[in-house]
Design a protein that fits this description.
- It contains eleven helices and 13 strands.
- By secondary structure, the chain is an alpha/beta fold.
- It folds into two domains: 255 residues, Spore Coat Polysaccharide Biosynthesis Protein SpsA, Chain A, CATH 3.90.550; 34 residues, no CATH class.
- The strands form three sheets. Strands 5-4-1-6-11-8-12-10-9 form a nine-stranded mixed sheet. The protein has a two-stranded antiparallel ribbon with strand order 2-3.
- It is globular, with a radius of gyration of 20 Å.
- The relative contact order is 0.15.
Length: 294
């Protein structure tokens, strides 16, 4: 069985829910404290054993490429100022991982974005991590590693999932397990459906932005008819691929932050600050001070 060593991160969307910030800066560069959101996602994959990355961008997102490359001018400045700690900080990722970039020139949906990764995949299975979702895995096990472990057990497509409220099922791809009463985190799937209405949703088990995909997915993406909004839906191609290979859902054990929403961004900022020794006390003081004035 092929090991999962590659990760694909789609980052070509316009991020309209964070306008006007995203008029000039990619939403993936929104900082949670002192790191951009996309770095947390890359680090999650790194901690899961992945060292080859493809980030899919559009032409206005060159700052993402800059962040994961070498900044010679800044490095020289830090060297001259003998700021070794800061120098090590900005050189860490370029020294540890290989990051490639490709462009998605048309916004034709997630399936179209994944199709841009066929050459990078090179016939091997890969992890897909969506940029709107940041996870903190329980027991220090990253969400991507949980999905990789499920793939190692089954050799099949894995959809990282979470349970959502009834009112939210229409926002997600929803899974239908063969055994609706199964309480295991890892369950074999009968079907998946993209953003169903509540009355047509087979369950509350929603795809949560983490996947392990087999290279055969590209065969289906290439022939996938466009769905809602003229987009190529990844979920539709996964459903078609299930006639050939099995697919499983794995309910991720951890906390998910929806960075596609302003509330999720605020929650992540507060929680990540509370989790840092250098910021915890200050954040607690800020929270107490503000709460006393409400």
């Amino acid at each position: 069985m092929e090991k999962i060593r590659k990760a694909v991160i789609p980052a070509a969307g316009f991020g309209t829910r964070f306008l006007p910030f995203t008029k000039s800066t990619p939403k993936e560069m929104l900082p949670i404290i002192d790191r951009p959101t996309i770095e947390y996602i890359v680090r999650e994959a790194m901690e899961s054993g992945i060292d080859e990355f493809l980030i899919i961008i559009n032409e206005s997102k060159e700052s993402i490429r800059t962040h994961f490359g070498n900044n010679v001018q800044l490095e020289k400045f830090l060297e001259e100022k003998h700021k070794k700690e800061e120098l090590d900080l900005i050189k860490e990722l370029p020294n540890k991982i290989k990051v490639e970039f490709t462009y998605q020139y048309q916004q034709l949906g997630l399936g179209h974005a994944v199709l841009c990764a066929e050459e990078f995949s090179n016939g091997k299975p890969f992890a897909l991590l969506l940029g709107d979702d940041v996870y903190v895995g329980n027991n220090n096990v990253p969400a991507t590693l949980q999905c990789i472990n499920a793939y190692n057990e089954t050799g099949s497509t894995i959809l990282g999932t979470l349970k959502v409220r009834d009112e939210d099922v229409s926002k997600y791809g929803i899974c239908e397990p063969f055994d609706m009463n199964c309480k295991d985190r890892l369950v074999k799937l009968k079907s998946v459906v993209e953003k169903p209405s509540l009355d047509k949703a087979p369950s509350n088990l929603a795809i949560g932005g983490r996947y392990i995909l087999l290279p055969s997915i590209f065969k289906y993406l290439k022939t996938q008819e466009r769905g809602k909004g003229g987009e190529i839906q990844l979920t539709d191609s996964i459903l078609r691929s299930m006639a050939e290979t099995s697919a499983y859902s794995y309910e991720i054990d951890g906390r998910r932050y929806d960075l596609g929403s302003k509330r999720g961004f605020l929650e992540a900022t507060v929680d990540f600050a509370l989790d840092r020794d250098d910021l915890k006390d200050d954040m607690i003081k800020i929270i107490k001070d503000r709460a006393s004035k409400i």
